[in-house]
Structures
1.
Amino acid sequence: MNDDALRTSIAGIDLTSPILLAAGTAGVLSEMRDVLDPSKLGGIVTKSITKEVRQGNPFPRITFSRAGMMNAIGLANPGIDGFVRDEGPKAATMGCPIIGSVAGDCLDDYVEVATRLASIDGVRAIEANVSCPNVHSGLEFGSDPAALKDLISAMSGAIGDIPMFVKLSPVTVGTPNTIVDLARVAIESGARGLTLTNTVPAMGIDVRTRKPILANVTGGLSGPAIHPIVVRLVHLVYRGLAKDAGVPIIAAGGVTRWEDAAEFILAGASVVQIGAGSFASPRASVKMRKGLAKWVRTQGASSVSDLVGQVKLD
Ligand SMILES: Cc1cc2nc3c(=O)[nH]c(=O)nc-3n(C[C@H](O)[C@H](O)[C@H](O)COP(=O)(O)O)c2cc1C
């Protein structure tokens, strides 16, 4: 199905669907090609890539809970050399825009990885992951406005015309800043899209062994449990900043059905990403196209973009 109601664009990139696959949940880049047709997707976000190869945290590092899943993968990835060598040549053949996700321990590493990813044919945007709860220093850049400003200014300066999206944490407790404050810093520093959000820091305990379920002790919760939390954050950032700034929101958090995607769009997201939903149903991102397109038409709109932020508040 090729439905015009789903066509949209973010930061100048045309998409055939507002549904993308979220970082770290679709393999490194090309693995989902075995189970679905990527041309039916709005895009694929790569696994977050770091400068060096990372083995990630010890196992167990994924567990499924009643309302989603918890992970502490710890950014396992082939490193930028391995990515450029093994996955880079596939990017332009995937049939949908590729967004290169970047993580790192220091500003120079982020800049180097972003620059190399941005030069790959088929990589249309960079997503700066400044919100990983599962690695030491993973949240540092995303919660400190001064560090965020330096990082995003340096990255966006280095990648030139390729747009950069900044992926924030849903949790700003313990910092004096709200997510709107941090999003404002990101935009003022050159971000052309805001990915809201990463996982919610969480923990599970096996009551029989009395041990933490994840070897890392804590992890990040995703899936349906976090969806209403992220809907509120999208709403706050859209109304408080992104709408007037004209910067698109890319929502991630518990999308498993077309209704979840529609809810994010009404709250202010231009597009959505699916993470945990692909683990539960690997083709969910493609299957929900039909329901979403029908919803757009029954709302009297010709394009999904007409419904962005259209929640009725009175
Ligand atoms: C197994 C797993 C691995 C993830 N790896 C990354 C990653 O490498 N980089 C990143 O920015 N987010 C990562 N995430 C977070 C997702 O991209 C997404 O932001 C989050 O899971 C919320 O969406 P969801 O509820 O649809 O899963 C990961 C999530 C899961 C479940």
Note: Residues 39 and 95 are 5 Å apart (CA to CA).
2.
Amino acid sequence: MTALVRYGFSAPVQSLARYGFLDGSHRLFDYGCGRGDDVRGLTENGLSASGWDPYFAPDNTISSADIVNLGFVINVIEDFDERVEALTRAWSLAERVLVVSVMLENQNDPRGQRFRDGVMTLRGTFQKYFTQSGIKTFLEQVLDEEPIPVAPGVLYLFRDKDMEQRFLMDRYRSKHNRLRTPSTQQQERPKRQRRDRVAERYETYREPLEHLWAQWLALGRKPDKSEVEDLLTLTEGFGSAPKALRFLERRNGLAEIERAASRRVDDLEVYFALNQFERRRPYKHLERGLQRDIKSFFGDCRSAQASARELLFTIADTQTIEQACQHAAERGGPFL
Ligand SMILES: C[S@@+](CC[C@H](N)C(=O)[O-])C[C@H]1O[C@@H](n2cnc3c(N)ncnc32)[C@H](O)[C@@H]1O
């Protein structure tokens, strides 16, 4: 009875779309899928999704997936041990990330009789309303993992720590509208002929070149060979990825790239500075893309850390910094 008919995606699924997890490269399993509206909607969008529910879809297969959604399930379970069991099972199925969502306490809670640690509503359904910190603590205690709140009552737990780092990094990436570079005015004839050859070549490889340019702008640095999507086509057309990059550099100029690089340095500094405030355990290693970012923008980890520390002193007071250092010491050292 708690499973409502949905006329749109649930908040956790919307959050996944917002953060770019629904790009078709991840399989999703909806644990406690209710009437299955999220699964149906995702499948209609060409994504790989399936679900199971003890009441609505008990015969469906329970399977592991890159992303597991445990949406508004914990808060309808009366029994504490059953809550723990549902959470642990969903976590065991999550290969890369688990998304947990619960109803939060607010003034519009339906009235009902207190029952165990929740309420029995007038419709005869059980609801346990959590506070944001209450659900975070519950997840931490049961799974011994650090959940990341992404929206009210919606938290992510990453098994894939590289994905977690990338996610945290991208969260602080400023959002930019990407505009096409205005075309330049045509000048004298000989130059135009030369430019036409460049234009012809560009036309032939337009799609991979556009991808490469967009990626260069997004990273703020030259993408590494391993990061280039259309490596084969570009190598065929230009000899190598660096040569394709040089072609773009000559054609488009460096001004836009320089602006992108400086935005990216800002984003990275904010990311590293904010990391000092988190209680997160230090990562065993840095995600490869981040390693390249550090090398390209700061030279090495020490310089990145120094740069982030400088930023910290401009945004936080001494007491906050002291507390952050204490947290860092408790969890065994700072992020970098
Ligand atoms: C409020 S509905 C949410 C359904 C769906 N996830 C959504 O967001 O629309 C809660 C669902 O949890 C399911 N449920 C109850 N106990 C469960 C358990 N122990 N394990 C998994 N699902 C459970 C119920 O059958 C119900 O469909």
Note: Residues 11-159 form a domain with the Rossmann fold fold (CATH 3.40.50.150).
